[in-house]
Amino acid sequence: DAGVIQSPRHEVTEMGQEVTLRCKPISGHNSLFWYRQTMMRGLELLIYFNNNVPIDDSGMPEDRFSAKMPNASFSTLKIQPSEPRDSAVYFCASRYRSGLATDTQYFGPGTRLTVL
Amino acid sequence: AQSVTQLGSHVSVSEGALVLLRCNYSSSVPPYLFWYVQYPNQGLQLLLKYTSAATLVKGINGFEAEFKKSETSFHLTKPSAHMSDAAEYFCAVSDGNDMRFGAGTRLTVKP
Questions:
Q1: Tell me: the pLDDT tens digits for A28-43?
Q2: DSSP assignment, residue A65?
Q3: CA distance, residue A84 to nearest chain B CA (Å)
Q4: DSSP string of A5-64?
């Protein structure tokens, strides 16, 4: 299995531009998570989906952030407009949700976003 | 609400020495606990997880963790550190829906 795939791996953009991060979960997984990692705040859960439906988006910083999961094999996280404080590493993770709390999340390699 | 607290943001050990990374949890339901490792410029990968089958859990790369309900702890240990163990380690707790991570502990291994 190829694991969780994220693109791009690195993104450098200017303040005010729209940024779209992409994620392909592991085939057969039915839950998908978006996280943000910074030195100051550590690893933060932004949003997660079960069966393509957003369940909890309370971690999304503000309306500039939006996430979609149009089908089981693809998700996007969009920032519009981007700001320098959005600079971080964004991780996508997926799992097969069997209903057990012991289900493991598998992480992608991350997208390093720099907003100038 | 569930949460984990990792004691010590940085731990430094000598190669061959014992590794001890501390994690305490808070959970209103029986906790399911995980340790993940993150190598530089990589995503997180699972080291081990507590599933209530046994309190002492063995993971990859010689790591293990012991669940102690009375102390609300799930500390990670390895008898003998290797240079390749240098990484950041995250403790996490799940209730079956989402997962909450600790702030992480950066492990440095000195030659």
A1: 999 999 999 998 888 9
A2: E
A3: 20
A4: EEE-SEEEE-TT--EEEEEEPPTT--EEEEEEEETTTEEEEEEEEETTEEEE-TT--STT
